């Protein structure tokens, strides 16, 4: 029973990593044809991606969206997480449903709804609309990351601070904020990664400046090229490195917070 | 402390979500009663769009297909994910958090990259076909592997399996082993312990994970588009076409709201099931 389940878990993890392993292998394979057997090791596909000015421009656009999205989502997510898990509020249940809504509504439906609204109110589509739209769908995740750190903080600390004469605000600033700082950093990184990978919503509300995800989508709708493997590997490993960093920060938080 | 601080903190977030999530959906709802007159929108409310959807075999078929795919992927991911969640919660020990993180890592590669990888794997000259030929299973590449419902559902299962595992894992975490020991002491054999203790107590996790997977499969746009070929036309891509090329925004809005209303009904039923089964588990 136990051995069988171990085997099953291994098989499932292999399934989860098979696609990533494949693109990693083909990204260094010296052939235009992406199939077995391998023809030899090369880094030319990486060189091709690095030398592509169009992709470079898309990458900069992605960065100029992901930075502000990560900041906005973390600020709003921090407020939401505090309201949900730390300070009592009225209508907590409804607020929680409102927070979850962007996660549960199909992205394309949210995208067309925002498109109509921007159109009706005469808001020009630009990087600003992309930032606003992406912040909406990243918000549930950043709230969750920050709340997961907040719920480990002992609420008794707030009472102790009050007993020692601290006002609500100074108790927040000197007790809660330092303890939630790691959660905020982890949220920033997670939001950054989610923003840079987002395609459906971005494609709808972006104007002329096209982020990397939109460029890549139009590329491989038509043809698969090995340099797309190299690009995918760079995106995956960049993301994994960032998420590992966020996880490290969050772990550190759970140690100091406990 | 009064209720005021929390409410004050929640206010900006509420305003933001009302402006960029709730308001757009309400405008979308209003649009679903309008109509296109040549190229202009006629703001003359009627139920014509909804009547058109109800009367069109194509749209009815696409909606049914979406929910069929959702149900199928929920079934597959729950069968694959159940043992994994059990293992993570009860057997992984010190490796638990490392394994959980490893399970979630592929999610961060982004939808596009994952769909791209499945194209490389499933293509006519792809890795799976080449391996099958090499192993002597088949002589010529299997053509229907990519651009088929099979390819779409493999990738959908891949995309959303982690969400099912997380939902189930949370349920297994709160499952007290003492219940199982008590059942064993009372003479229940292993299959009956599973059917009468484990399954009912992890049912809320199954519902929560199932709802997440269901709504994401129903709403997925990229996967069927890029892997499904001719079968990749979904109700979501129909909405996309009505907004993108056909410029029939009112009809698109009506289909979108039909989908939203059905999904909301599923959530209501799911929430009720979770509440009821956690009452049973707690007593």
From TrEMBL, chain A:
Topology relative to the membrane: Multi-pass membrane protein
Protein's UniProt name: ABC transporter permease
InterPro entries, alphabetized: Bact_Polyamine_Transport, MetI-like, MetI-like_sf
Record Pfam families: BPD_transp_1
All copies of domain ABC transmembrane type-1, residue ranges: 59-246
Keyword hit for Transport: yes
Spans traversing the lipid bilayer: 7-28, 65-87, 94-116, 128-151, 183-207, 227-249
């Amino acid at each position: 029973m136990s051995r069988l389940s171990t085997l099953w878990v291994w098989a499932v993890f292999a399934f989860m990593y098979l696609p990533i392993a494949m693109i990693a292998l083909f990204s260094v394979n010296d052939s235009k044809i992406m199939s077995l057997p391998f023809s030899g090791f090369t880094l030319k596909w990486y060189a091709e991606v690095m030398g592509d000015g169009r992709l470079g421009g898309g990458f900069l656009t992605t960065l100029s969206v992901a930075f502000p999205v990560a900041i906005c989502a973390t600020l709003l997510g921090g407020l939401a997480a505090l309201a949900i898990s730390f300070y009592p509020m009225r209508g907590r249940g409804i607020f929680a449903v409102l927070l979850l809504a962007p996660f549960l509504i199909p992205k394309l439906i949210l995208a067309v709804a925002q498109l109509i609204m921007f159109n009706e109110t005469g808001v020009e589509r630009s990087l600003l609309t992309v930032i606003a739209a992406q912040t909406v769908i990243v918000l549930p995740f950043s709230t969750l990351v920050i709340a997961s750190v907040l719920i480990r903080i002992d609420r008794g600390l707030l009472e102790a601070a009050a007993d020692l004469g601290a006002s609500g605000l100074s108790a927040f600033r000197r007790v809660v904020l330092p303890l939630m700082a790691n959660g905020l950093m982890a949220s920033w990184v997670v939001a950054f990664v989610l923003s840079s990978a987002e395609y459906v919503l971005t494609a709808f509300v972006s104007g002329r400046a096209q982020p990397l995800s939109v460029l890549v989508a139009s590329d491989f709708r038509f043809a698969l090229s090995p340099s797309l493997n190299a690009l995918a590997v760079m995106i995956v490993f960049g993301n994994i490195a960032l998420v590992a960093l966020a996880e490290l920060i969050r772990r550190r938080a759970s140690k100091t917070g406990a | 402390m009064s209720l005021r601080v929390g409410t004050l903190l929640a206010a900006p977030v509420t305003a933001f979500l009302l402006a960029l999530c709730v308001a757009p959906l309400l405008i979308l709802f209003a649009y679903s009663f309008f109509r296109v007159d040549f190229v202009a929108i006629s703001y003359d409310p009627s139920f014509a769009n909804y009547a058109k959807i109800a009367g069109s075999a194509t749209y009815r078929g696409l909606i049914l297909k979406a929910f069929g795919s959702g149900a199928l992927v929920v079934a597959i991911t729950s069968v694959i994910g159940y043992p994994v969640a059990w293992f993570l919660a009860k057997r992984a020990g010190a490796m638990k958090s490392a394994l959980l993180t490893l399970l979630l890592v592929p999610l961060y590669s982004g939808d596009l990259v994952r769909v791209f990888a499945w194209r490389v794997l499933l293509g006519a000259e792809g890795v799976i076909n080449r391996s099958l030929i090499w192993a002597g299973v088949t002589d010529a590449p299997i053509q229907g592997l990519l651009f088929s419902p099979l390819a779409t559902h493999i990738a959908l299962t891949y995309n959303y399996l982690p969400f099912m595992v997380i939902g189930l894992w949370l349920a297994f975490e709160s499952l007290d082993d003492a219940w199982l020991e008590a059942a064993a002491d009372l003479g229940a054999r292993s299959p009956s312990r599973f059917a009468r203790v484990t399954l009912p107590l992890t049912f809320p996790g199954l519902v929560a994970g199932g709802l997440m997977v269901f709504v994401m499969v129903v709403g997925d746009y990229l996967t069927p588009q890029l892997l499904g070929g001719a079968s990749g036309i979904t109700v979501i891509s129909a909405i996309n076409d009505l907004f993108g090329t056909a410029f029939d925004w009112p009809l698109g809005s009506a289909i979108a709201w039909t989908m939203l209303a059905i999904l909301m009904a599923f959530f209501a039923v799911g929430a009720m099931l979770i509440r009821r089964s956690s009452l049973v588990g707690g007593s």
